[in-house]
Specification:
Shape of chain B: globular
Helix content of chain A: 55-70%
Radius of gyration of chain B: 26 Å
Number of domains of chain A: 1
CATH architecture of one domain in chain B: 3-Layer(aba) Sandwich
Largest sheet of chain A: none
Structural class of chain B: alpha/beta
Number of strands of chain A: 0
Radius of gyration of chain A: 23 Å
Helix content of chain B: 25-40%
CATH superfamily of chain A: MetI-like
Distance between the termini of chain A: 24 Å
Shape of chain A: elongated
Number of helices of chain A: 12
CATH superfamily of one domain in chain B: P-loop containing nucleotide triphosphate hydrolases
Number of strands of chain B: 20
CATH topology of one domain in chain B: Rossmann fold
Order of helices and strands of chain A: HHHHHHHHHHHH
Distance between the termini of chain B: 39 Å
Largest interface: A-B, 30 and 43 residues
CATH class of one domain in chain B: Alpha Beta
Oligomer: heterodimer
Number of helices of chain B: 22
Chain lengths: ~290, ~575
């Protein structure tokens, strides 16, 4: 009877097909390349540049871009903008990524539990989500940032706490439909515990939407960090972040516009790139259900 | 031979397909969906195209209707319709032919009907799209059509939305739409597959009556030889995109010449009417005793007084002896699947008791019942949905035993052993479910249920989603497993022919209750209740009494048809 055995090469087709679909999404590919470049530059760049981010050169204050070794010019204290931009990028991207990880974690746990358990537990959790969503998040963030001592860690937590709800909703809806699938019934039949079914059987099938939501959350987190730092409640100088670089630039908009334009461009590039990646991932991962 | 068939006067032929080849996009499992297929649909005849899934029968129908998806193209051959080769003509001209000359009914009437339009509006739309009649004449014609397809109270039906109708009624509406422009050719793509047997019998009769009344030509696509025996004048058998045999229904069914046809016909389950040889079990103890089991579904909210209560299982009692198989048969909505899920406690019952090995498990909580789970296992219906797509077959098989404390290694060894036992090679262990065909996946599902050496197996429509030839293999496997392990089985199915193959005893369910119970010989040859009689009579391709060969039925039908015409 063994003649009906499968003689197929071990290709994980959804991987290869998903990757292929992502590669076909040119904007997503561009976004991916930009983020890779940005991360590389922020990690390695400061070592390659001749200046330290705190080095003050009083003679070269307000140097415009491409003057001497100051490729992006200098700020009002004569600090090199290029190196400060990359150091700020480290902080901003790190805050963005960590906030994404934390909020995805919270959102996934809440969403999976609410979706799988259902009943009053699910209702209570989802109404909590609705409660969080009904707060104007910017005010919440600002209020929290104003009362708590702002450090990169604290900013990360604040952003995560105000942006996990979307992930929770997406995951809850996905899990609720997966819960009815026969393989979940089969998992109950063989006697697996609820936690095992949630985390090992259902969750792997919900990774697509979670990854998409996560990539969009990074973009949101970077924007939020820039926002609160720009308003002066976020990352405090002398530690640079893209937001507080903008803050420092506002009074010199007319005389030294590059101080605002360059960090602004960095934020725009990072955020659009993450959004493109999110779109690409959505297209690449969403077709997981067309079996064969 | 081709020249001979072309010589047949073209007046006799409504539709002629010659050397049709339809290619698939690169990277699919084969290059052509259909290759060099030729057949003629004669005027006023019913031509059945039969084949298993992937045989290209639906692609052929869609090619004729010009409804192929963009990626799939007709690469060569011709489809000759009243002297026009429709492969070559422009989409506009084809649209004009569609509905007027050829029209089509589909397998799933719910997804083929627009949920937001009333039945009447949808029928009128077909006529309006081809500028036929005035608004007023279209309306009266729509009502006439509803009468013609045998829908009760057509005036009321005219204003109904599709979701309010039953499956059979929806299919009647689809037929009314297809008939709206009096087409010369009707293509029916598995129109009865999604329906219950009794409804199927009615729809088949309707199609046959209309075909005869209007002298239409019908191309009927099906996978069921029973249906072929019921309505076909001539038959085309397809396998993997090739036409392997064609001829008159009688000839193909009675003396099939091609090996594949013979194999297919041999695989069709028949009512045996004979009782199964029971196992030589020394132990005649009862393993399961169910008393007055009740399950009600509540929907809506009690608070807003919109609550609806549906009793799915209503006071079901039976017992099952060790090593025996009880078949639970019934139509959709009879509560048979709910019963299965209650027994395995995937759902909580609302009353009654389930005595498993003498212990009432109905009231146990999930935690209390978990240690007993290994003893009762289930084989699920859908081989695609019942295996976690993100787990390897090995993980799927071992995860349960490991959770119950069996060491990884031991579970892995047992899994490999069982895989070869159910007819898969042990390399399957590392693979993912999507790499297997439906039948192979169902084998994995069976292996999973056997991992614990269960005492009771519940098979919920375990072979319904499979092709007949695979179905026969799986039934054989289940029988063999039962003989080796002495496991008791509850076999839930809508297909009486399948039930008659494997069950020692059959319980017929209707509206949540068991209305008749007995050995297959009683149920099929001497049914006591009227409902069972109706159910047995509706089985396509079988005569109600006795298990005569399939082919005889056809002559019988033609004779009665002639008599009807005469009178």
């Amino acid at each position: 009877m063994t003649d009906i055995a499968a003689h197929l090469p071990p290709i994980r087709w959804w991987h290869s097909r998903g990757v292929r679909r992502f590669m076909r999404h040119h904007l997503a590919l561009l976004g991916f390349a930009m983020i890779a470049l940005l991360v590389l530059a922020c990690v390695l760049g400061p070592y390659a540049l001749p200046y330290d981010s705190l080095h003050i050169d009083m003679r070269a204050r307000f140097a415009p871009p491409l003057s001497g070794h100051h490729y992006f010019g200098t700020d009002p204290l004569g600090r090199d903008l290029a190196v400060r931009l990359l150091m700020a990028g480290r902080v901003s991207l790190l805050v963005g990524f960590s906030a994404m990880l934390l909020s995805t974690l919270i959102g996934t746990l809440v969403g999976v539990t609410a979706g799988y358990r259902g009943g009053w537990i699910g209702a209570a959790l989802m109404r909590t989500v609705d409660g969080f969503l009904s707060f104007p998040s910017i005010f919440l963030v600002l209020a929290l940032a104003a009362t708590l001592r702002p450090s990169p860690m604290m900013i990360t937590v604040i952003i995560a706490v105000t942006s996990w709800m979307e992930v929770a909703r997406i995951v809850e809806a996905e899990v609720r439909s997966l819960r009815e699938r026969e393989f979940v019934q089969a998992a109950r039949m063989v006697g697996l515990s609820g936690r095992h079914i949630m985390l090992r059987e259902i969750l792997p099938n919900a990774t697509g939407p979670i990854i998409v939501a996560a990539s969009l959350t990074v973009a949101r987190a970077i924007l939020l960090e820039a926002y609160i730092s720009f308003l002066g409640y976020g990352i405090q100088p002398p530690l640079p972040s893209w937001g507080n670089l903008l803050n420092g630039a506002q009074q010199y908009l007319a005389s030294a516009p590059w101080l605002a334009i360059i960090p602004g461009a960095a934020i725009t590039i990072a955020v659009t790139s993450f959004n493109f990646i999110g779109d690409g991932l959505r297209d690449a991962l969403d077709v997981r259900d067309d079996h064969i | 031979m081709a020249s001979a068939s072309q010589a047949v006067a073209s007046e006799d032929v409504a539709l002629s397909v010659r050397d049709l080849t339809v290619s698939l996009p690169a990277g699919m499992e084969r290059a052509h969906a259909v290759e060099n297929v030729s057949f003629d649909l004669k005027r006023g005849q019913i031509l059945c195209i039969i084949g298993e899934s992937g045989s290209g029968k639906s692609v052929t129908a869609n090619a004729i209707m010009g409804l192929l998806p963009k990626a799939i193209r007709v690469t060569s051959g011709s489809i000759d319709l009243n002297g026009t080769n429709i492969v070559a003509i422009s989409p506009d001209k084809l649209r004009n032919l569609r509905g007027r000359v050829v029209s089509m009914i589909f397998q799933d009437p719910l997804s083929a009907l627009n949920p937001l339009m009333t039945v009447g509006a949808q029928i009128e739309e077909v006529m309006a799209a081809h500028d036929v009649g005035t608004a007023k004449s279209r309306r009266s014609r729509a009502i006439d059509l509803l009468v013609e397809v045998g829908l009760p109270d057509p005036q009321l039906m005219y204003h109904q939305y599709p979701f309010r109708l039953s499956g059979g009624q929806r299919q009647r509406v689809m037929i009314a739409m297809a008939l709206a422009l009096e087409p010369a050719i009707l293509i029916a793509d598995e129109p009865t597959t999604a329906l219950d047997v009794t409804t199927q019998a009615q729809i088949l009769k309707l199609i046959r009556d209309i075909q005869r009344r209007k002298g239409m030509s019908v191309m009927f696509i099906t996978h069921d030889f029973g249906v072929v025996a019921e309505i076909a004048d001539s038959v085309v058998v397809m396998e993997k995109g090739h036409c392997v045999e064609q001829g008159s229904a009688e000839q193909v069914l009675k003396s099939p010449s091609h090996l594949y046809t013979r194999r297919l016909i041999a695989a069709v389950p028949h009512l045996t009417g004979k009782d199964r040889n029971p196992l030589e079990a020394a132990d005649r103890a009862s393993i399961l005793k169910v008393e007055c089991l009740v399950k009600t579904y509540r929907s809506g909210s009690a608070l807003f007084r919109t609550q609806r209560i549906v009793t799915a299982v209503n006071g079901v009692s039976f017992d099952l002896t060790q090593g025996r198989t009880l078949g639970v048969v019934g139509e959709s909505g009879s509560g048979k699947s709910s019963l299965g899920r209650l027994l395995i406690k995937l759902m909580e019952s609302d009353g009654g008791s389930i005595l498993f090995e003498g212990r009432d498990v109905a009231g146990l909580t999930e935690a209390e019942f978990r240690p007993l789970r290994p003893k009762i296992q289930m084989i699920f219906q859908d081989p695609f949905a019942s295996l976690n797509p993100r787990s390897t077959v090995g993980q799927i098989l071992t995860v349960g035993p490991v959770a119950h404390g069996v060491p990884h290694r031991e579970a892995g060894e047992r899994a490999r052993e069982l895989l070869s036992h159910v007819g898969l090679d042990s390399g399957a262990f590392e693979r993912y479910p999507h790499e297997f065909s439906g039948g192979q996946r169902q084998r994995v599902g069976i292996a999973r249920a056997l991992m614990f050496k269960p005492k009771l197996l519940i098979a919920d429509e375990a072979v319904s989603a499979l092709d007949v030839s695979i179905q026969a293999q799986i039934l054989k496997l289940l029988d063999q497993i039962q003989r080796e392990t002495g496991v008791s089985m509850i076999f839930i199915t809508h297909d009486l022919r399948v039930a008659s193959q494997i069950c020692d005893e059959i319980a017929v369910m209707h509206r949540g209750q068991i209305i008749e119970r007995g050995p297959p010989s009683q149920i099929f040859l001497d049914p006591k209740s009227a409902y069972t009689r109706e159910l047995v009579a509706a089985i396509p391709g079988e005569q109600p009494r006795g298990a005569r060969a399939l082919a005889g039925v056809n002559e019988h039908r033609r004779d009665t048809a002639k008599n009807e015409e005469r009178s």
